Amino acid sequence: MARQILIAGNWKMNKGAADGAQLIKDLKAQFGSGCSCCCSGAKKPEVLVCPTFTTLSAVVAEAQGSCLLVGAQNIHWADQGAFTGEISGAMLKECGVTHVIIGHSERRQYFGETDATVNQRLKAALKNGLTAVVCVGETLAEREAGTTNVVVERQVRGALADISADDMKKVVIAYEPVWAIGTGKVASDEQAQEVHAFIRGLLKVMFSCPCVADSTRILYGGSMNAANAAGLLAQPDIDGGLIGGASLKPADFATIVKAAAQA
Ligand SMILES: O=C[C@H](O)COP(=O)(O)O
Questions:
Q1: Active site at which residues (predicted)?
Q2: Total domains present in the chain
Q3: DSSP strand E in the chain: where?
Q4: Residue 7: beta bridge partners?
Q5: Which one of 102, 122, 158, 234 has the lowest number of neighbouring Cβ atoms within 10 Å?
């Protein structure tokens, strides 16, 4: 089954509203009018940017009328209430976003995110009609201990607990080996493909309808850049990228999108 490639930029804690709007202007200049010229005659990837909460509205306004989709980097499971520092699905929707990243390893590492809270946040995203990009991935110690698949399986099963085949239409999985994030040490094409194939196989086991495994997009994240994107995106089970550092550089991000259009 042909899966539409998704190239997602996770801006992390970078770019305030003014700088974020400027980055969108720069991206639009890279992509050309209507974002069509970079991909004309080729498969058109979806392109998503995920700024900080305070930058969302400015970026949504600047992205209007372009091909750029806008997502947030987190969501709380409650609709409202005493949850200092959190944000609800309804609030995100009010900002005009359509996507949300959930369970990034930085959230797991620094903010106590667990498989159970990832699952709760995912349910909130789906309840609010948002497409979720659910992150999984092993640490270096886990890879060296030979437990990559065990860890990834636990994270995928935990994140997708009680999620239906129908819900999965709005779920994207991002495989991000923690040791590759922001380190410049990208997984090899083969290492990444191996885990992506494992995740797709796991989805086959978890969902009786084979359409789930066939249609769920699995992104790679971790030091993906303009130089290595084409090789990663050529792998049969890699359906796009979740990109940190390179998503802040318009020319590099555009190069990755163009590589995706050729993949
Ligand atoms: O969400 C994005 C990933 O953490 C990858 O970040 P990076 O491309 O800077 O390694």
A1: 104, 176
A2: 1
A3: 6-10, 46-50, 68-72, 99-102, 131-136, 171-175, 218-221, 240-243
A4: 47, 241
A5: 234
The answer to whether position 68 is within a domain reads yes
Q: How far apart are the CA of 82 and the centre of ligand 1, in A?
A: 31
- Per-10-residue mean pLDDT, the chain, length 263: 93 98 96 57 84 98 96 98 98 98 97 98 98 98 98 98 98 98 94 98 96 97 97 97 98 96 90
Q: Which pTM does this prediction carry?
A: 0.96
Which of 181, 219, 225, 232, when mutated, tests ligand 1's pocket best, judged by the most ligand atoms within 8 Å of its CB? 181
> Does residue 1 sit within a domain?
no
Distance between CA atoms of 10 and 104, rounded to whole angstroms?
10
Q: What is the CATH number of the domain that holds 56?
A: 3.20.20.70
CA dist., res. 150 & res. 118, Å (int): 18
Q: Which residue bears the tokens 């994270």? A: 155
- Crossing angle of helices 250-262 and 17-31, in 10° steps, is 40
